[in-house]
Amino acid sequence: MRERWIPSAVLAALVAATAAAVALALLVISVGAPPTQADSSQEAEMRAIARELACPVCQGLSVADSPSPLAAEMRAVILQKLDQGETRDQIIAYFVDRYGESILFSPPKRGFTLLIWWVPFLALAAGMAIVGVCLYHWLRAGRAHRPGAGPGDGPGAGVEAEALRDPELAAYLPRLEAELRRWREATR
Amino acid sequence: MDLGLADAGLIASFLAFSLAIYQLAATIVGYRWSLPALLRSARNAALGNAALLLYLVLTLLVALERHDFSIAYVAEVSSRSMPWSVTVTSLWGGQPGSLLLWTCGLAVFSAVAVWRAYRDAPALAPFAGATLAAIQAFFLFLVTFVSSPFTRLPVPALDGVGLNPLLWDDGMFIHPPLLLTGFMSFSLPFAFVVAGLLAGRLDRAWLARVRRWALVAWGIQGAGLLAGMWWAYHVLGWGGYWGWDPVENAALLPWLCATAFLHSVQVQERRGMLKAWNVALIVAAFALSIFGTFIVRSGIITSVHSFALSAVGPYFFAFLGIVLAGSLGLLLYRLPLLRSEGEFDTLLSRESSFLVNNLLLVGIAAATFWGTVFPALSEALRGARVAVGAPFYQQVNGPLLLVVLLLMGLGPLLAWRRTSPGRLWRLLRWPLATWAGVSLVLLAFGLRPGLAAFAFGACAFVAVATLLELWHGAAVRRRSTHEAWPVAFWMLMARDRRRYGGYIVHLAMVLIAAGAIGQASFQQEAATTLPRGGSVAVGRYRLTFEGLFERRLPDLDIVLAHLRVQQDGREIALMEPERRTHRGWEQQPTTGVAIHTTWPWLDDLYVLLTGWQADGSATFRIIVNPLVSFIWLGALLFLAGTLIAGWPERARLARPAGRPSMAVVPARGPSLQPAAPEVVLSDA
After folding, report:
1. Last residue of some domain: B117, B143, B168?
2. How far apart are CA B580 and CA B609, in angstroms?
3. Domain count along chain B
4. What is the pLDDT of residue A3?
5. Co-location of B487 and B546 in the same domain
6. Euclidean distance between the first and final Cα of chain A, in Å?
7. How far away is chain A from the Cα of B658, in angstroms, using its nearest Cα?
8. Which of A52, A113, A164 sits opposite B386 (nearest CB)?
């Protein structure tokens, strides 16, 4: 029957789309933010490193963005260390050594701070499950109420959909719906 | 001893606190024992409270302008060197003043709401009035006893400390008051939700009232957020407009919940479903607005230790606990009235798209909340602070926001109850074709990263889908009325303002998304030191440094650089980034950003003067921010759409002429609910 495959196909598509979004997000997280530009110069490398460090004297700004003098000094230190041939990891380790882990602009993806990365997605997955269960029940209730009426391209559905596109007619729809429901309940 | 402004303020705030308590008590007693005179008195007390709070704000303003440094708050936030206009903004420059302004806003709004409710919805009015009075009493308690802006110093100061010069900006007039008003106004939908639950009247009229106030709060908060973005971009000078810092997040959270509510409330209106969920969203928005009010002016997120130092902290958390526990109790108590009436016909329907919308918006809010409190949590649990910066939010919220964007294009095309796949395909094919076309063309022209081309295509998809909806509506009208296109559009909007106002807000969001994608993907930056006459190329632009100039004002030293800008060899602008040093704030020079939007590429050239040397060379930070002007265009469209959706309808015609005066009448209508009796007030 037509109404059997449509909802399940759409449900599958919906779940697939959301799963794809979550997968995409996880991918982005696991590989880190993609570099915005392919620029190999030392200046760009300095900015990439500075973007991973939190400016210690401001709220919510990275060393790359902060206009504070301290951040400017830190940028100079990064450039100097790059000149001396140090790698990105060495430079970041140097700052973590001096300032502690709170210098990292995003929490490291290990140990306790792994929590911050996983909880949003666990919460989202839980929300998806709840919405899925609700949808399942409501759809079953809806089907139980209209044993004969199949959704889809029936003549009624077309008129209704057309009316919804027309603001003049749309005003009458709720009333029609209420009447229909009353009638359905009276004749049940 | 004569009374000073401090005494006037202290006395008036004590009076206002007492009046709020009286309003609460009089409402309860008047309702319980059906005493209309007492209820009327409570209603008038709301007006009196508003008057007292306006007086308090005025008093503080006068104290600030008179430099009455015997008052601790005045000495903290203002100084003699501040111009008078900056002194006005220092009213909300610190916690006590902000709380006072918050409370004043609530007093004015609740006077209006309570007065109107007694007229139009007498069954809800006492409950809403009592809830608002309780909130008001709590804040007045803070303003009067805990964090008063009128506390005296033991010895009057000679001069005040004053505001950080970074805040000496006209943006201070708009952004903080808008956000404080926004935070405050979430109290109103909450009060009516509580009123409906208490009275057991969860009908359509109740829902309409809650929705209207939610829309007001949502609109004000949205405007405040956009004003904050503008301010961050034009004044703070770090090159961006949204840094995901705790204060910004705190302001975003209630707005996200309200956005979710404004969508899911339609499911309740049309299908009688999601009732308990909608109540929960309003409660969450209010709780988060209280949380935000607290965060904005305390340092708790910076460090848990400042929580202990902040006097208002424990009170706020106790209040939040009461709000949450009380609301949950009420919700459970009234759960039988909140049972879902409807059911879903198919998955491919407007209802289910709203469900997904809610899941995503609440998911974004939850992730943002989690990231905001995580540093404090980490410090409390293991004693080590972590920073949670923009990358976390970009990586977690970014994909979710992209899905929300797509849903914005898809959702409005779905009909209620069911949409046939064939019909959906007919509606979707042109938007989808646009998506594919735009993405491919951008890729063909070498736009990289490919993700950005895909995302711009998605923006085009949503824009075309929305515009087609508008066009279809106008075409249908024209077929029956033969109006000209502009008239047809205008009448279409007028006929269903919520719907079409909503579409305009969607278009605004598309513009903002396009600007954000452009800025995030294609920002270019150079930091360079130029000798006089030297030049640097950034992207397609070449900037030539022509020299430094100095301007001395009585309280301000400005050093400014002249930079000539060439685009593809043609001169397009003279830019003047500045460095300002305010007298008395020599340690904290502020930057004057120079911004020039180029044509036709709509790049923002964003130039900061970061320093100079004795030989006349100067150091600049030059950023090319593509498409940021789309965000400000989107902000204007957001305001327009919100006004269209929320402008008050003309007063309903049939209001009963001869009302019973001061009579207790039983609830009208076919109510299956144990409804509370109605007390009708009239001044006759």
Report:
1. B168
2. 10
3. 4
4. 46
5. no
6. 24
7. 29
8. A113
Q: Are residues B516 and B597 in the same domain?
A: no
Q: Which of B164, B244, B339, B348 to mutate to test the interface with A (most CBs of A within 10 A)?
A: B348
Q: Using CA atoms, how far apart are residues B523 and B517, in angstroms rounded to an integer?
A: 10
Question: How far B11 CA sits from the closest chain A CA (Å)?
Answer: 38
A41-82 pLDDT, tens digit per residue, is 788 889 889 989 998 887 778 898 887 888 888 998 999 999
Place of tokens 């952004």: B175
Cα torsion B502, B505, B506, B511 to 10°: value is: 170
Count how many residues are written for chain A: 188
For B:343-362, CB contacts with A below 8 A are 343-348, 352, 355-356, 359, 362
Phi, psi of A139 (to 5 degrees): -65, -40
The Cβ of residue B519 has, within 10 Å, a number of other Cβ atoms equal to 24
For residue A119, which residues of chain B lie inside 8 Å, CB to CB? Answer: 370
Shortest Cα–Cα distance, A33 to chain B (Å): 7
B317 touches chain A (CB under 8 A): no
Is B582 in contact with B168 (CB distance < 8 Å)? yes
Give the Cα-Cα-Cα angle B525, B531, B536 (nearest 5 degrees): 30
CB contact under 8 A, A123 and B343: no
Tens-digit pLDDT profile for residues B96-135: 999 999 999 999 999 999 999 999 999 999 999 999 999 9
Residue B565: enclosing H or E segment and its boundaries?
Answer: strand B556-567
Q: Is B450 helix (H, G, I), strand (E, B) or coil?
A: helix
**Burial of A169 (C-beta count, 10 Å sphere; 0-12/13-18/19+):** middle
Tokens representing B31? 């309702």
Which chain B residues touch A17 with a CB distance below 8 Å? Answer: 403
Tokens read off for B198: 């208490």
Query: Residue B164 is which amino acid?
Result: N
Q: Does residue A47 sit in helix, strand or coil?
A: helix
- Between CA A26 and CA A118 the distance in angstroms is 9
Contact B533, B615 (CB under 8 A): no
Query: Which candidate in B257, B266, B345 is best for mutational testing of the A interface (most A CBs within 10 A)?
Result: B345
| Cα B514 → chain centroid | 21
The count of CB pairs under 8 A between chains A and B is 218
How many angstroms away from the CA of B648 is the closest CA of chain A? 19
Q: Which domain holds residue B539?
A: 524-630
Phi-psi region of B613 (alpha: psi -120 to 50; beta: other; left: phi over 0): beta
Which of A66, A123, A161 has the CB atom closest to B419's CB atom? A161
Among B618, B617, B605, residue whose Cα is nearest residue B525: B605
Collect all residues of chain B within an 8 Å Cβ-Cβ radius of residue A148: none
Q: What is the average pLDDT value for chain A, to the nearest integer?
A: 74
Nearest CB neighbour to B492, from listed A25, A145, A167: A167
Domain shared by B6 and B133, yes or no: yes
CATH number listed for the domain at residues A35-106: 1.10.8.640
Task: Report pLDDT for A14.
Answer: 61
B683 belongs to a structural domain: no
Q: Which chain B residue has the Cα nearest residue A51?
A: B391
CB contact under 8 A, B238 and A145: no
Residue B173 belongs to a domain: no
Higher-confidence residue of B341 and B85: namely B85
Q: Do B344 and A135 touch (CB under 8 A)?
A: yes
Check residue B239 and report its DSSP letter.
S
CB atoms B526 and A43 under 8 Å? yes
Report angle CA B2, B7, B9 to the nearest 5 degrees: 140
Question: What is chain B's Cα-based Rg?
Answer: 28
3 state SS for A14-41: HHHHHHHHHHHHHHHHHHCCCCCCCCCC
Amino acid letter, residue A100: G
- Where exactly are the structural domains of chain A? 35-106, 156-188
State whether B506 and B537 are in the same domain.
no
